[in-house]
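RECORD TYPE: inverse folding
INPUT: structure tokens
STRUCTURE:
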């Protein structure tokens, strides 16, 4: 089985001046370095996994933890060099960004995606049929095309 990733819809619910949805449907703190005193909240519109594709935020003093610039997902704060990677989120939940009034960084981009199961099928030889039947390499079982793909494969088998 393989996994295909499909973007999940996100929306900025507050702090639109500090966070935006980019052309790929990911949320970002904007172009260039982020500023002091930023704050925004992002709504997750579908179940998915959050992963930082760009991450450069203020590295905190190790003894203080994430108290300056951070993204909060659930009860976990992400800061420094440790951005979110495959963090599960549910539709209707939110996450947030906050920067304090001191050191700034290059910023971040977080994408939300949902895994889609793929079933890989080997090449088959049907008994009594001299020609090999080659099924699709993979059939998405949760897509609108799944029925069409499986029907076409079955028709090829039954010839």
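DESIGNED SEQUENCE:
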């Amino acid at each position: 089985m393989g996994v295909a990733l499909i973007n999940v819809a996100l929306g900025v619910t507050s702090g639109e001046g500090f966070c935006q949805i980019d052309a790929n449907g990911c949320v970002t703190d904007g172009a260039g370095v982020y500023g002091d005193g930023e704050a925004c909240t992002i709504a997750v519109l579908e179940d998915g996994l959050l992963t930082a594709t760009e991450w450069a935020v203020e590295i905190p003093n190790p003894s203080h933890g994430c108290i300056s610039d951070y993204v909060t997902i659930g009860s976990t704060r992400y800061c420094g060099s440790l951005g979110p990677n495959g963090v599960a989120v549910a539709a209707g939940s939110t996450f947030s960004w906050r920067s304090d009034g001191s050191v700034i960084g290059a910023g971040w981009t977080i994408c939300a995606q949902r895994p889609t199961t793929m079933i890989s099928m080997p090449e088959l030889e049907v008994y009594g049929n001299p020609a090999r039947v080659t099924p699709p390499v993979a059939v998405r079982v949760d897509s609108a095309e799944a029925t069409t793909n499986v029907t076409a494969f079955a028709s090829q088998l039954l010839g």
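NOTES: The chain has two domains: 2-115, 121-158.
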